């Protein structure tokens, strides 16, 4: 019986945590000067932090789709400057980053200069990872039209492609003042960002908030019962007694990650930051 329950839980985790749709946005159908784009049904906003980044479509043949030149991409051609920085952020589905291509140069489009690139992933404003790349950039047009591949499965020797985020920030450093961002490959996570950071069951029997949490959270239930918290391996890490009404709980002792709360009314995902 325990074996059956364990495999059922593992199957549930596979469906909740592993399901995803890989998609590559090449920006070819996006509008010039747009500060947002839509791919695989998800709307991403382009947030400019230093300089102005948006969709560029005025210079055909200056992009890169991973195998050939293309026509549209994100850049800051009108405001190239030191420490240029932008983010792509969604307020709907969470996502993971697989890879992207980026053109880096100074304001005169000279690529043979010394610069850095910092890539940061955030979830609900909290930094989940950040890495600065200092070498290995294209120094001329070559076979990739001047674009450098940023592979998140091996960025500075680490794999960041499985980290769920809602914001990817790119920051230029050193002599790099211009950036062209193209062929963005990402994975659509099954998690949904809900209003007010709250997850509710379809039958409205139970709600959990805030979510994500740094440790403390509230389970609001209209029935008495038990709840068990599982990690991503299917192991029970904590058991709770849930009473009708407001239940104040805490998982500060658990490592950062995503957990499953199993109750009689359903399964609920909670993120510990």
TrEMBL record:
Secretion signal, residue range per the UniProt entry: 1-20
Domain of life: Bacteria
Keyword Signal found: yes
Oxidoreductase found in the keyword field: no
Protein keywords: Signal
Domain Secretion system C-terminal sorting, first and last residues per copy: 208-271
Listed InterPro entries: Secre_tail
Transmembrane segments: none
Protein name in the entry: Secreted protein (Por secretion system target)
Species in which this protein is naturally found: Chryseobacterium daecheongense
Lineage of the organism: Bacteria, Pseudomonadati, Bacteroidota, Flavobacteriia, Flavobacteriales
């Amino acid at each position: 019986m325990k074996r059956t329950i364990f495999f059922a839980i593992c199957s549930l985790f596979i469906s909740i945590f592993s399901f995803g749709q890989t998609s590559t946005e090449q920006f070819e159908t996006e509008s010039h000067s747009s500060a947002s784009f839509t791919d695989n049904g998800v709307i991403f906003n382009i947030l400019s932090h230093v300089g102005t980044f948006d969709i560029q479509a005025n210079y055909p043949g200056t992009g890169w789709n991973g195998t050939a030149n293309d026509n549209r991409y994100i850049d800051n051609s009108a405001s190239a400057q030191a420490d240029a920085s932008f983010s792509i952020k969604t307020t709907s589905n969470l996502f993971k980053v697989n890879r992207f291509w980026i053109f880096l140069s100074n304001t005169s489009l000279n690529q043979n200069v010394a610069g850095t690139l910092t890539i940061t992933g955030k979830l609900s404003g909290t930094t989940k990872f950040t890495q600065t790349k200092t070498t290995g950039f294209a120094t001329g047009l070559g076979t990739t039209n001047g674009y450098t591949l940023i592979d998140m499965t091996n960025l500075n020797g680490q794999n960041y492609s499985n980290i769920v985020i809602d914001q990817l920030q790119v920051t230029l450093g050193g002599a790099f003042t211009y950036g062209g961002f193209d062929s963005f490959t990402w994975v659509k996570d099954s998690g949904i960002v809900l209003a007010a950071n709250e997850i509710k069951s379809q039958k409205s029997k139970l709600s959990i908030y805030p979510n994500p949490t740094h440790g403390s959270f509230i389970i609001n239930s209209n029935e008495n019962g038990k709840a068990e918290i599982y990690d991503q391996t299917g192991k029970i890490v904590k058991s709770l007694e849930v009473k009708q009404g407001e239940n104040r709980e805490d998982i500060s002792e658990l490592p950062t990650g995503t957990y499953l709360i199993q109750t009689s009314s359903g399964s609920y995902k909670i993120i510990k930051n």
